[in-house]
């Protein structure tokens, strides 16, 4: 699913407004799977069954769970050749809920 955002929240609308496209994609490797939040041009690169390399990716916390993201300092690259990768689908890191715990000294 691709969601488009822009124009609201007191920001300018019309031709000068910047539209943002967001898609949540399930990505994985031999260690597990996680939800990747693709933004703008990244959305077009994410196709089911394709092999992608996420360089300089980071973890964002959303409602207590992890999401993988690549910001302007990172890069999403689609592999030219097929690779023999077995994805560990039974380890979904996005399903683990985390809670911020304060430790008093």
From TrEMBL:
SUPFAM superfamilies referenced in this protein's UniProt entry, alphabetically: Nucleic acid-binding proteins
InterPro entries in the record: NA-bd_OB-fold, OB_Ssb-like
Residues in Single-stranded DNA binding protein Ssb-like OB fold domain copies: 14-78
Pfam families found in the cross-reference section: OB_Ssb-like
Top-level division of the source organism's lineage: Eukaryota
Protein name: Single-stranded DNA binding protein Ssb-like OB fold domain-containing protein
Organism: Brassica cretica
